[in-house]
User: Fold this.
Amino acid sequence: MRFGERLAAAVARRGPLCVGIDPHPGLLASWGLPQDASGLERFALTCVEAFGDEVAVVKPQSAFFEAHGSRGVAVLERVLAGLRDAGALVLLDAKRGDIGSTMAAYAAAYLADGSPLAADAVTLSPYLGFGSLAPALEAAAAGGRGVFVLAATSNPEGASVQRAEGADGRSVAQAVVDEAARANAGAHPQGDVGLVVGATLAELGLDLSALNGPVLAPGFGAQGATVADLRALFGPDLRGVLPTSSRDVLRHGPDTASLRSAARRVRDSLAL
Ligand SMILES: O=C(O)c1cc(=O)[nH]c(=O)n1[C@@H]1O[C@H](COP(=O)(O)O)[C@@H](O)[C@H]1O
Assistant:
């Protein structure tokens, strides 16, 4: 089955929330864990247990694992496998983007069957040109996987690049939206190319009507965006939107049941 179909089915079953696994040093400390690969492992596997059979999508942030070197990457491999076994879709937050021929190597790492770091989807940066991402889009489609391409990010610095206008008067972010829409055209119930649009934006300033794909909305929770902000930006029913929260859920650890009920509470707050 294609990623767009698998995602729609997962959201129908488990609701639209994505929970991020971001093992910040401060969170490891507040969970009483050591600042090393064993602390990372305890943290991440607790998250797998709490969220893997509860939410539709879980998003491990790669850098926090890479920071612990090869042992950290080994933990990430276990997290990917554990989440998959528990029935969650895994969105690996790696924000990759490179010239096309190197992009093929990233695609082989994250989007190919048999790779130890293969996920259901990966975040990509389109700022070497959307076309440079083609090898990743092709690998994703071939393996029933997806991608989420940064369009308008949640951080205030993003606007200086993403809101810049091209010769045709479209913003860079709108051009990214339009390319994703082209890739998703005709797919049912939605395509495999998602976008990232920050929940913290003061106004959307984008036409998403032709996207026909999922929108990951970070900035919800710890960065200040509320459910009301999400509805104001994306419309009252949040159709196709995957709000994602990391720290605001993770601060309820280390108790597994508390983490799970925090995720449930946040997910229920998104229901109409
Ligand atoms: O692609 C992302 O996931 C992402 C894009 C963006 O525009 N803003 C953003 O915050 N993120 C990620 O989403 C997560 C947000 O974490 P919290 O602010 O703790 O909920 C982090 O892992 C960020 O790297």
